[in-house]
Amino acid sequence: MTHQFNDNVKISRLTSDCASDAFSLACEVFVEASVLHAAINISVEEYKHYLAGSFEAMWRQGLSLVVTDTQTNEIIGCLIACDYLTQDQSLITVPDKLKPVNALLNRLDEMYRNNRQLETGQCMLVDMAVVIENARGQGIYRKLRESAHQIGRKAGYTLVVGELSSTATQQLCVSRFNHKVCAEIEYSSYKYKEHYPFSTIETPRSIILAEGNL
Ligand SMILES: CC(C)(COP(=O)(O)OP(=O)(O)OC[C@H]1O[C@@H](n2cnc3c(N)ncnc32)[C@H](O)[C@@H]1OP(=O)(O)O)[C@@H](O)C(=O)NCCC(=O)NCCS
Fold first, then answer.
1. Percent residues over pLDDT 90 in the chain
2. Are 9 and 78 in contact (CB under 8 A)?
3. Which of 56, 93, 106, 166 is the most buried (most CB within 10 A)?
4. How confident is the model at residue 158 (pLDDT cuts 50, 70, 90)?
5. For strand 206-213 and strand 159-164, is the pairing parallel, antiparallel, or unpaired?
6. How far is the CA of 194 from the centre of ligand 1 (A)?
7. What pLDDT does 90 receive?
8. Does ligand 1 lie within 6 Å of residue 167's CB atom?
């Protein structure tokens, strides 16, 4: 599957040819620009070491995408998706800095699954999405999402879920796609071991787990 949506950018399946570049890009952008990861101040190397195994397990499910600049052949974005029930099966020790992030995501998951019984093959999780800074605001994430939803639908998934930590992802999924907010946690009041690790995040106000039909 390759989808060229203007002269300069194409979206294609993440395969072994580009997995290593996509992995580096995803880690670099997340550490710098995901509000959660910026708040905990983790290094790219530490994050890569932690994520390598689960990143590979996710893209090998065949639901993930890369965006390439067709002029330079450079990867400028990616979206990593997997079956909701197979996320986070890594056996690697979680670095201390990442523990508050994982605890927050686990809490969102708990809130969601209190009201939802899921089966394998039913719900696709969009786990990560990144676009490089100077390509943002041009609708690339929107195109990535639309392509991923199409792939998920064809693979038999009927639901898509995102743990949306940023304003752009919340804007697109909740306001544009009308995905349902199934769980929400305010950053400023989230407490982990007597600390408020995300109190420095001003926008958005909260992290949201949103579910859409495919
Ligand atoms: C989140 C990210 C992938 C968005 O990529 P993008 O290609 O710039 O997004 P798009 O241009 O498709 O914009 C999607 C929507 O968000 C809106 N948006 C984009 N940036 C925004 C911002 N900073 N504030 C408010 N809305 C924003 C756009 O207007 C668009 O909404 P619209 O369809 O109503 O106009 C990109 O900003 C990124 O890589 N951020 C760092 C990593 C990260 O936080 N990933 C998400 C973790 S959940």
1. 92
2. no
3. 166
4. very high
5. antiparallel
6. 32
7. 73
8. yes
